[in-house]
Amino acid sequence: xxxxxxxxxxxxxxxxxxxxxxxxxxxxxxxxxxxxxxxxxxxxxxxxxxxxxxxxxxxxxxxxxxxxxxxxxxxxxxxxxxxxxxxxxxxxxxxxxxxxxxxxxxxxxxxxxxxxxxxxxxxxxxxxxxxxxxxxxxxxxxxxxxxxxxxxxxxxxxxxxxxxxxxxxxxxxxxxxxxxxxxxxxxxxxxxxxxxxxxxxxxxxxxxxxxxxxxxxxxxxxxxxxxxxxxxxxxxxxxxxxxxxxxxxxxxxxxxxxxxxxxxxxxxxxxxxxxxxxxxxxxxxxxxxxxxxxxxxxxxxxxxxxxxxxxxxxxxxxxxxxxxxxxxxxxxxxxxxxxxxxxxxxxxxxxxxxxxxxxxxxxxxxxxx
Length: 369
Ligand SMILES: NC(=O)c1ccc[n+]([C@@H]2O[C@H](COP(=O)([O-])OP(=O)(O)OC[C@H]3O[C@@H](n4cnc5c(N)ncnc54)[C@H](O)[C@@H]3O)[C@@H](O)[C@H]2O)c1
Known about the structure:
Elements: E1 5-10, H1 16-23, E2 29-35, H2 39-49, E3 53-55, H3 57-62, E4 68-71, H4 78-87, E5 91-94, H5 102-115, E6 119-121, H6 129-140, E7 146-154, H7 174-191, E8 194-202, E9 207-209, E10 219-221, E11 227-234, E12 239-245, E13 255-260, E14 263-266, E15 278-280, E16 288-289, H8 303-314, H9 322-341, E17 345-346
Parallel strand pairs: 1-2, 1-4, 2-3, 4-5, 5-6, 7-12
Antiparallel strand pairs: 7-13, 8-11, 8-17, 9-10, 11-12, 13-14, 14-15, 15-16
Nicotinamide-adenine-dinucleotide binds near residues 15, 37, 72, 81 and 96.
């Protein structure tokens, strides 16, 4: 017998369809309501996915049946909506980043703690089959002790294709806050917490010209760094490098690689759920693609919410949790701070590696007691 957690979704834009598709199928969850600043969007998504209610945000927060708010709004209001949900006595799971500023993210964690509520946060791609395979193989020692890692996300920016790209160039976005959570969540899930960081951040192109319709030709003034190179000293002793950029044309190096004493692992795209996972070990003839035995290799956005719901019912820790997301946010800010201040920054936050998922775990099956 399952005892699903009743959830309400706030923010019915682009990303909400995949969450609705998945969350309405997971036995741990019952999607009771959709809400949006634009009520028609909430109504349209409720109708499309068979969700019983379409609400204003206030109505959703006031509904006592809703136990968990899935916050899919824009980053600028992640903190505000997250805090409102907690104040209404509900658990909250935010899309990434947890919040724009450390302060509102910290307030969320403190409020949740004081009320016995939980905070969860995307990305949950690290729970997918590809990255869980990496986790299993690294924990088993296939590449020995990890000594270094590198992560590269580089492009010339989204204004050639995105219909309203201005926000990517404002504080709280830029390539680090927009894409960094995928890369840093993956690195910390594999290697553990980061002790200190340093970095350099710059704006290479102070103005951008929109190439896409309907705003083609409009100038964007860039107000946040768009090329950020960070150095991460992990508590384990491993040293990481991360480059996120909207300023450069593609290079040949992209994605994440982890270097161990006994080999090297090329990870799959951390913004996706599947493989491939490729390993080089000295003595073997070539790079070897590793079998993926874990489930969820397709777009499974929402499995972090399902895991959180199981954990609420079973009294266990959930994997895509607020402590991890706060550490990632802290790292992203600290790299920018280090660049401004010209020094290393010792991090005040830390995290524990979320438990690995057993092979065969699927959010499509019930796990709650
Ligand atoms: N689009 C993607 O491919 C993608 C992928 C992964 C993660 N994300 C993340 O998901 C989140 C949402 O992205 P999106 O692409 O769906 O954005 P979007 O702009 O398409 O949708 C956001 C929705 O939130 C609503 N909203 C804004 N402020 C609100 C408020 N105060 N109260 C209620 N509703 C409010 C808007 O009306 C809109 O419908 C972001 O954090 C983004 O980083 C997006």
